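ok trying again, last paste got cut off:
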Amino acid sequence: MFDVARVRGLYVSLSDGWTYLNAGERAQVPERVSSAVSRAFRTAPLQAHTEMSSGSHSRAQVPGGAVGAQITASARLAVADLVGGRPDGVVLGPNRAVLLHTLSTAMSRQLRMGREVVLSRVDDPANTAPWLMACDLYGAHVRWAEADLSTGTLPEWQYGDLVTPDTALVAVAAANAHVGTVTDVAAVAREVHRRSRGWVVVDATAYAPYRVIDIDAWEADVVAVDLAPLGGPEIGALVFRDPTLPAQLKLMDAARGRHATVDVEAEAERRLRALEVGGHAPGLL
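nice, full thing came through this time. structure:
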């Protein structure tokens, strides 16, 4: 038998006796998550304890560092584990909509006139609105993938017609939160990479609560995910399969007062962190 009382006890928000049916949009927050957040807000400003030992398995500590820096590093590692990526390719922010907007702005060179972007009409607006706005600003042409009206699925074969050598980006959702259909992301990505040098940006938010994500198996260039539908805090993330990929982005270099356009591997980490313009509280992380 399913122990309903025990499960309800794990969620303080259910102590009022009601049953909430909005899990797809806003999952209830477990007590372990809310207590971890409150504890992190208390400890984030504190000085980190430096480990005295110096063996090969001791933690590398930066003198004068705060606990919040360790929390941020742990959050990047957790998100990387969630999608099968690397921590140095993780960008954190308030939600995926803000992060995708920042990414679309940084891709101004790729989205100029003469280039194309492929979107899906059945995707969440958070996954399409940033790219539509960027195309209006920079001149790229938008092409649309359509769902099968009889099943609600997004057929991957149509990308063979939609993707051209001028395609700069294909944005697709791994699953549809409303009808529950799952997209064959790997097939879409293979078609995109075979026909163009465009990026494949996958929204995995509706997929993550139910199935295992493997960014390598998908062959996706970027995976976006919100953690709130998983019962986590209000945090979103972008994960780059290749952490050096952001070196291609055109980001404003505040230190030099101009656009930094040098595509060198050393720039990738700086540009990844520059994408985190929205900021994030270590307590939520």
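cool. The longest strand covers residues 167-173. Strands lie at 90-93, 116-120, 141-145, 167-173, 199-203, 222-226, 236-240, 251-253, 258-260.
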